[in-house]
Amino acid sequence: MASRNRGLCFSSSVLLCLALCLGSGWLAPSWVSAQTPVFACDVESTPSLAGFPFCNASLGVPDRVADLVQRLTLQEKIGFLVNAAGAVSRLGIPKYEWWSEALHGVSYVGPGTRFSSLVPGATSFPQVILTAASFNATLFEAIGKVVSTEARAMHNVGLAGLTFWSPNINIFRDPRWGRGQETPGEDPLLSSKYGAGYIRGLQQSDDSDPDRLKVAACCKHYTAYDLDNWKGVDRYHFNAIVTQQDLDDTFQPPFKSCVIDGNVASVMCSYNQVNGKPTCADPDLLAGVIRGQWKLNGYIVSDCDSVDVLYNSQHYTKTPEEAAAASILAGLDLNCGSFLGQHTQAAVTAGLLDEAAINKAISNNFATLMRLGFFDGDPRKQLYGKLGPADVCTPENQELARDAARQGIVLLKNAEGSLPLASSSIKSLAVIGPNANVTKTMIGNYEGTPCKYVTPFQGLTAYAPTTYAPGCANVACSAAQLDDAKKIAASADATVLVMGADQSIEAESRDRVDLLLPGQQSLLISEVANVSKGPVILVIMSGGGMDIQFAKDNNKITSILWVGYPGEAGGVAIADIIFGVYNPSGRLPMTWYPQSYVDKVPMTNMNMRPDPATGYPGRTYRFYTGDTVFSFGDGLSYSKFTHHLDEAPELVSVPLELNHACKLSDKCKSVDAVEQICGNLGFDINLRVKNSGMMSGSHTVFFLSSPPSVHGSPRKHLLGFDKVFVDARGETPVSFRVDVCKHLSVVDEVGARKIALGQHVLHIGDLQHSFSVGV
């Protein structure tokens, strides 16, 4: 999502808020027109509206939409192609602002949502990259459910819309990307599971009606978008050159899962071009794939001003009306921005576009609002009508934010006798670092005003007597303030250094150029560690990975934690783990590369697979084989977990017709994963997970596979994961169903899915199991 024109439609947002507030019984200011409808289909105030079929909630959505569209003039229709949708007073339709955000809590980014004295804040969960590190699909959905409840509560008092442009499920392809923090990481399966789970939490109606929406989610940014502003290359001009193989096995799967598994109500196309075409004007990507192949039940929206960008910045068309026509004909339904509002009439006049195409676009938009109940009259009489300010920032919601942070925090290093600290034996704790006492840094970007903050320093102070020194004026740390920091560390029983980044280092429109800790942070860490008399715990607060090999190798630094941007309760979650109230179970959702990696790999190279001819090393754990600081899936616990395999096959046979070419030749390396072969072809893997430690805790079971080397297959890829709780000295059974066509297939060079024949190796923690797939 862009921040180019955040003030774009504020006036319409205010009118919507006032309209809804009027519906809640508030007095109208004198300047509000008496003709302004307070909500759509207010039949009690305007009985004549009851005669309109589009206001009849007992009719089906398609019939209601068709009735509404045929009543509109062309100019009125064009007004519904933009995010600041216009009012049609004669039909009892108020203005509506489509742009609201809910990346990890209800956000004030976008003109559709705001906070006030009535609702001063909402629950601010960890930034997505940390929630993803929990590898807990149940948590993903639980957070979405809380966010949608708070959103509905705010909508009922005129402070929020019903359409939220979240989640961001782009692949964290390059560690320098400033927006990687918003994503679930580098793995397509994890991103897919996160997206579908969060969407279900946002959208699923409490009345179990699959065609109703609690709020409408949006998966963004489609597609192959993962560069913002790097060394003079920006997202408005970048042409991502992507092979069909990489597109289909890396960049597209999360979006496909959003639509098919999550039934998402919207997909947002991105700024960049893919192979020479702007995504928002590519009929193959929009009408062909999203709506044609995946059968989207909802609307396609542009990133903000991206239609303007494809004309004015990319010069994809010669005239603005050509850009408007190209976007709508490609399958775009809604323009975040004003471009379609300004140029669609001219496109029709010039014969580039007919009214039927506009009807189709706005029909998708209206259908979404119908599913949200926007045309069902008084919201106070609907399913969520009783929600209000008391349902925002509840103790239960705030506790979930704390627990989400605890589940995601990753323990990367832990020398014997370091963590957890015992509060009874720590008489003095030195807390040092530019992120040690921060508030807003903890909630990352696309944030809202939180219920409250607990900083790391405050959280730690609840467990032990503390002294504090920032060590740097800010995360840029241009000059380390060593004296005070070394003084308190030298006399403390233990030292916690809270370092890392913030939005000045990595953010939207701000990619990094290196992977090093900013400024003199490394100097501060090393100097403090050298004089500390007790354990030294290094806490990295960041979205992307850092090259902290120096700290990993330094024996004086006894523990390392990565805490992402941990949300409003981040400080207490960090303290809970450091003092052993919570057993860490997070795992890295992305690779932490050494600085040498980015020294030789340009961010603009989209290729996932390595190229031995040029020395290109490939990307992510699936293809990269070089050195890492920490690897995807790394994470320690205060307990020791082991895996014991009970059942897995040695041989899997794919049934083929007797005259199939692969039955007649032993040279086949793969067979097409087609419906007639797949059916219910699969098998179960059964194992036990044992906790041999003295502390109960959760554990992530990864099911990874190394397929045969065919079609440039991944060296290893994630088939599934499961989060299980295991009592101290206990064990628990875990099973995983392997779908042969889904899990044992790879994408070939032209984007077709093939079952790889030959030896597969299954990796489950410290276990490896080989089995053969044949015909």
UniProtKB/TrEMBL annotation:
State if DNA-binding is listed as a keyword. no
GO cellular component, alphabetical, reads: apoplast
Enumerate the Pfam families for this protein. Answer: Fn3-like, Glyco_hydro_3, Glyco_hydro_3_C
Signal peptide positions on this chain: 1-23
Q: Which domain of life is it from?
A: Eukaryota
Q: Which UniProt keywords apply?
A: Glycoprotein, Glycosidase, Hydrolase, Secreted, Signal
Biological-process GO terms, alphabetical: arabinan catabolic process; xylan catabolic process
Any idea where this protein resides?
Secreted
Q: Which residues form the Fibronectin type III-like domain?
A: 699-768
Keyword Signal set for record: yes
| Main localization of the protein described in the UniProt heading | secreted
| Gene3D superfamilies to which the protein is assigned, alphabetical | Glycoside hydrolase family 3 C-terminal domain, Glycoside hydrolase, family 3, N-terminal domain, Immunoglobulins
What family is it from? Belongs to the glycosyl hydrolase 3 family.
Q: What is this protein called?
A: Fibronectin type III-like domain-containing protein
